Amino acid sequence: MRYYRLFARSGGLAGRARRLTAVTAVLAVGGVFAGMVPPQAAHAAAMHWPLVFLPPRVVYGSVPAGQARDRRFILVNLGWAFTGRLTFTITGPGASGFTLSRNHCAGVSLPPRGSCSGMARFAPGQAAQYRAQLTARARNRTGSGTVTATLPLTGTGTFSHLVFTPPAYDYGEVPAGQSATKTFTLSNDGTAATGAITISTTGDTAAFPMTARTCNGQDLAPGQHCTLIIGFRPATAVSYAAQVNAAASAGDHATVPLTGTGTAAPLQSVSAGGLHTCTVKTDHTLWCWGSNFYGQLGDATRTNRTVPVQVSGHGTDWVAVTAGASHTCAVKIDHTLWCWGLNGNGEFGDGTTTNSLVPVQAGGHGTDWAAVTAGALHTCAVKIDHTLWCWGLNGNGEFGDGTTTNSLVPVQVSGHATDWAAVTAFEIRTCAVKTGGTLWCWGDNTFGQLGDGSTTNSLVPVQVSGHATDWAAVTAGSGHTCAVKTNHTVWCWGDNANGQLGDGSTTNSLVPVQVSGHATDWAAATAGALHTCAVKTDGTLWCWGDSTFGQLGDGSTTGSPVPVQVSGHATDWAAVTGGEFHTCAVKTDHTLWCWGWNPDGQLGNGSTAGSPVPVHVSGM
After folding, report:
1. Is beta strand 169-175 parallel, antiparallel or unpaired with respect to 253-263?
2. Which has the minimum average pLDDT: 163-167, 294-298, 373-377, 449-453?
3. What is the distance between the alpha carbons of residues 211 and 231, in angstroms, rounded to a whole number?
4. Neighbour tally for 276: CB within 10 Å
5. Mean pLDDT of all residues in 19-42
6. Alpha-carbon span 510 to 547, nearest angstrom
7. Labelling 408: which of 254, 300, 359, 617 has CA 20 to 30 A away?
């Protein structure tokens, strides 16, 4: 039992009443509550109401929800005699927020002029006002009934509320080895400060590096926020998931789930031209090989190469390349366009007709080019605003500008549309897909290669028959055209003398016909001069049409009007490109293989011998 004798047994009622100030002084000396004895205590003593709480009320102020705050109280017996054993209750509308964390008074029988102490705890469960009262109750041993004392308790529950914006994020597909970033905001939407914040990540932590931790260690006041920059860098082609956790010392926390999918590392941009081939490696260097009569290899010479040589300047900022009949063009990371080789008809679009053995900036020196395609003697390109421009030779309307006038600088395709997505050119015609999935062609239509149901040339884009809106990609051969739909079917039209339409016949078609087998698993297609090849979604590679030089890659020189699988029956082909009479393709391991005609070394294997089966390009 713990209690304190406060003053001597003498002086009577009046004496005790007069000595209440002495009680105050004694408690103050003991480090308790100076000056807190209420004036009515004298009255209480005089009326034999002996119990008094000190202080007379407890105000906790603001306490964050989930935390707790203790306040000490003293219970004084100012009565004539011992109390009965003390019991305590907390009542009132806010009673749930208060408890007794320590109570030396419970069960005690206080002697006259004695006291005991305890701790009342305020632990709000939510942001609200709490009001209650602590009641001490005991039987009076003098037989005068029950004696009580009440202690009003008040406090305000507050909260810090951490919120991530966005609350979750999916980075989508990101090539392995590359990265994407996202900025997140962490806000305190509550009514109390958070205290120091700790940021941590769980799950696939290595795939989600944090490049900026401005929130770590911060104490956010209500309404304040901080930012986190979190990256996604997949190592392999698998799915990843993690969770970023923000924990505040005040007790609050927030989480943001992160997901992303790694895809195969970016494949080389490969393009097979008339008698040469070029590729952009994954390190953004550019290499060419084969015929170099006009300097189309870009190595500052006119020497044919049977193995890849790096384009002059040794740049590491190339993105995509296209090989034409005798000139080459490529786009850089900064969206500039460069061309080299033959420029006798203005194929560079630089305002001149001067050939070049090294890249020269083309396309009007613009810095907004997104994609480019090289025909025989003309070039077309899409800008990042989805406008389409052409230049060079225009004798058959291959510019699509409504004229047959050549141009040394880019001219916009008729209609000035701003929804072009992709473009392809071969010899003297052009085709392009719009963002809405429609397909349009213009220029030479001798064999019906425009696909509009006629053999009439067109100086402006005409929509391919059927007016479908599900075209995904298009490729142009010498006199035929093929395209892939979003449902993974392949369709071809135009010249079919060598079975290049792949429909099992050698009959030309003025409108699209589906490739034999009606497969729905084609991923990409390419057209050579007289043959076509396509990759399936299962990684197999198939070709059809003319194979005089072994360009079908099936080990023979026999053409086929239906798809035949490329020799080796590999299932790891990723992309394919058709040259005039040779074919090249990339595997998922980034190795590059070519086959077919090879008089100038366009297969890149160090020889000039043709091959009816894939041969590995040297160093690729």
Report:
1. parallel
2. 163-167
3. 7
4. 33
5. 37
6. 23
7. 300
**Structure tokens that stand for 169 in this block:** 């994020």
Closest CA to 376 of 275, 445, 492: 275
**How many Å is the Cα radius of gyration of the chain?**
43
Tokens, residue 546: 């003319």
Q: What are 152's two structure tokens? A: 């009003």
**What mean pLDDT, rounded, does the chain reach?**
87
401 exposure class (CB count in 10 Å sphere: 0-12, 13-18, 19+): buried
- For residue 327, what are the contacts with CB-CB under 8 A and spacing of at least 6? 294, 296, 339, 340, 341, 342, 343, 347, 348, 374, 379
Q: Is the pLDDT of residue 454 over 80?
A: yes
- pLDDT exceeds 50 at position 14: no
Among 218, 224, 163, 170, CA closest to 192: 224
pLDDT at 373: 95
Burial of 409 (0-12, 13-18, 19+ CB in 10 A): middle
- pLDDT tens profile 336-393: 999 999 999 999 999 999 999 999 999 778 889 989 999 999 999 999 899 999 999 9
Length of the chain, in residues: 620
Q: Are 392 and 407 a contacting pair, CB within 8 Å?
A: yes
Confidence at residue 40, expressed as pLDDT on a 0 to 100 scale: 42
Contact 546, 533 (CB under 8 A): no
Of the ranges 158-162, 202-206, 286-290, which is most confident? Answer: 286-290
Q: Is 95 helix (H, G, I), strand (E, B) or coil?
A: helix
Q: Is the pLDDT at 31 greater than 80, yes or no?
A: no
Q: Which domains are present in the chain?
A: 12-156 (2.60.40.10), 162-263 (2.60.40.10), 269-616 (2.130.10.30)
Q: What is the pLDDT of residue 39?
A: 45
Measured CA to CA in angstroms, residue 62 lies from 54, 156, 229 at distances of 21, 5, 34
Residue 551 pLDDT > 90: yes
* 183 contacts 228 by C-beta, under 8 angstroms: yes
Expressed in angstroms, the distance from the first to the final Cα of the chain is 90
